[in-house]
Amino acid sequence: MPEKIQRKSNVAKLLIPAKPRRGPRLPLTLATFLVPLIGLFVILNIAPVRSPLVESEASLALAVRHLSDHPASSMIAQGPLTTAGIALAAMGRSIVGSNEFQLRILGLLAGVAAMSVLLRLGERLYSTRVGILAVILLFATSSGRALLGAQLSVAPFYLLTSFLALRAIRVLAVSRLAGVYAGMAIGASFALVGYPALWLLLFTAIWLQRLRGLTFRNTMMLMAVTLISAAILSLLSVGILVAHGSQLQDALAMGIGGFPAAQDPVSFLLGLLVFLPLLPVVALGIAFRPADWQWQGSPRFIGIWLFCSLLEVIFTGQWSSLFVGLCVSIAVPCIWAIENVSRKNAFFALGVSVSILLVVLALSPGEIARRSHESWAARETGRFTRRLVPIDMPIRTTENVRHRIAYYGRRQTLPPVIADPTQTPYILLERTSLSQMARDVPLPRELILDGTPTRIVAEIGPYVIGKQSTGAAADEEGEPAPPGGLDRRATFWQSR
To answer: Which of 287, 320, 340 is the last residue of a domain?
Structure first.
């Protein structure tokens, strides 16, 4: 009998694994993989990832082209660009290619990673459905898709580092290493956008104060990790710029970190339109919220997020963090409405939401279509000037198209008003500034612009290219112009 018990004990030992089975270190749900892949498919099909560059994208692309000593290298974009942003764009250009879609590929991959982290953050805050709905809200607007990589910028990389920092801040109470991870992510955000990332440090300080962990030691550790990681990534960015042909003093002159341009407030307001149809559902969810909603999830965490990101918008003009925070905060009451509202109230709220949606769709497409046609016209105008104007001759343009003409036209651009316009005779203006009329009316072939005779060379969409000279010089040149003073391609773009 004792021998049989001993035999069973030996068999049981053989069945015990060498190491005890543990759960995965980073538990990932199916939605963490599936939703970002679906989102990438959606962005590639409905977002203008192959469309011409807008002005902010052209500024970054022009700075990257300067690194390769292009003939237009004298036109380095003197804009608010960051060292890390130029380095990431330069890597994308050298690894993938230089057309519009290829320049945006690295940003799209960063946007996919940011979606995965946002899903994990939503699961940590409330539930998987909150993260999925927040990602869907980002997909629903052109502003959200631009933040996820549909446009060439540092925004998707900044979102990724911000979400990693927020995810680490959320678990500061249960993990000591979370403070190190948060400092590394905040340092990466500093390297990408400069001092706009201060809102993450403020967020960490407020959250540590709430957890009673804001001690001198913890603060010094967080600051040290943040500064070290920001310095390492910034110096790495400088090394990438030097490897791509930039002079060391030029790379250092761009500034460690830098400060990106303030994002377009019109894009932020257009992005808020997607929230209007959800207001009835949000109101219904708040009315039928769970009894213990204060203890379910992290309402204080989202409140601090909104407060700190609002300060970022006020002082820096960067609204991407606030926009995502609004998506998460709106997703929570929507999930409450789905879980707790009766069928009768749900149908009523759905009807009101559909009515608001129809009104929004009736008001917004005209502006979106106009901006899309304007970007195509700007690209064709730049290419036309590249063929028409000698490569070493600058062209005078307005501020809203200056970088795009410099990029596609491969030449230096100047302001429209200069002391001697005959030295740089070619000028590009918006058509409405000449006709002073909203409708499309024929322009004269010859006109006087600010006291200088101007010959209309071409009209492409909303843009007009003219050549200025003195009266005598114009008679001597006798340069042939296209019939009627219009270019054939101009007629095509006006028909669009």
So the answer is: 340
Going from the C-alpha of 245 to that of each of 65, 248, 332, 412, the distances in angstroms are 10, 9, 49, 20
Encode pLDDT of 275-322 as tens digits: 888 888 888 888 888 877 777 668 889 999 999 999 999 988 889 999
- 182 three-state secondary structure: helix
In a domain, 308, yes or no: yes
Parallel, antiparallel or unpaired: strands 463-468 and 452-460:
antiparallel
pTM for this entry: 0.82
Q: What percent of the residues of the chain are helix, what percent strand, and what percent coil, each to the nearest 5?
A: 65, 5, 30
The DSSP result for 33-56, as a single string, is HHHHHHHHHHHHHHS-TTSPP-HH
The dihedral sign for the CA sequence 101, 104, 110, 114: negative
Phi, psi of 452 (to 5 degrees): -115, 130
User: Residue 477 half-sphere exposure, CB side, CA atoms within 13 Å?
Assistant: 13
Domain assignment of residue 134, given as a range = 30-340
**Closest C-alpha to 229, from 263, 210, 201:** 201
Q: Please report whether residue 18 resides in a domain.
A: no
